[in-house]
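Let's practice the habit of predicting before peeking. Look at the sequence and jot down your guess about where helices and strands might fall. Then scroll down.
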Amino acid sequence: MATNFDMDALRTMVAGTELGSFARAAVQLGRSQSAVSMQIRKLEEQAGRPLFARSGRHLVPTEAGDALLAYARRIIALNDEAAVSIGATAAAASVRMGLPQDLFEDVMPDALDRFARVRPGVHVEVRAGRNQVLEAEVRAGRIDVAMAFFPAGSDGHGTLIASLPMVWLAPQAAQDVAAATPLPLILFDHPCLFRQGALKALDRAGHRWRLALTTPSLPGVWAALRLRHGVTVRTRHRVPPDIVEVDPSAGLPDLPRIELRLLTADRIHPAAADLREIVEACARRRLA
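Done guessing? Here is the structure:
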């Protein structure tokens, strides 16, 4: 007789793996930790072999666990798709969204407010991440919807939301920092499209530069600018009022444009589809 895997247990397995903790999965799914543990034990009994092994303080999938995890994502997606096709309600415990930090102050709260009115009670998990990481997470089905930056002309990546110019930025009260030689730079650490664009432009122009500060934090970039440690490169979107574009008289080279694109997983449930539409509308409006 074929084994019938429990759908709720499969959802728990996927949530625990993606969150990196079954304790966090219990909170997200609104269950006790003991109930989650029982579901995983039930799956292992149905599979007839261990699905997870302990690695330090964490549980990681075994080879069998990895195989079942891949099927679990497909089974859940097909289940939800079937429910939608016949008009049944496909409840989603959670939707997962990835965004660059540049959108955290306007697009994210706007989208979350609108989504909460459309889908009350659905948990939203928001992740900040690098462009390459967000794209990989979407392709793997670990994030439903993401916004990410790409080089101009990246037509094979998602839906174009906006094409934006990169600009040189410096503190309003210390424009002279842009005239320093070598040019002090405040940038995200590698890999970063803004960093790549700045360094390529400077190298092509033969303009000497040095890295004054690198950080993975956008607030950290703004703080370093205010302390006059150097200049940076971003778009004009949500630049703090005390940070301004560098005057052309500083002689800094022109920068390329950058694209903001919307990425969507191959199979998403109806709540995630609603989130995708809302995020796209909010981003287009904010970046118009």
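How did you do? The chain has a mean pLDDT of 87.
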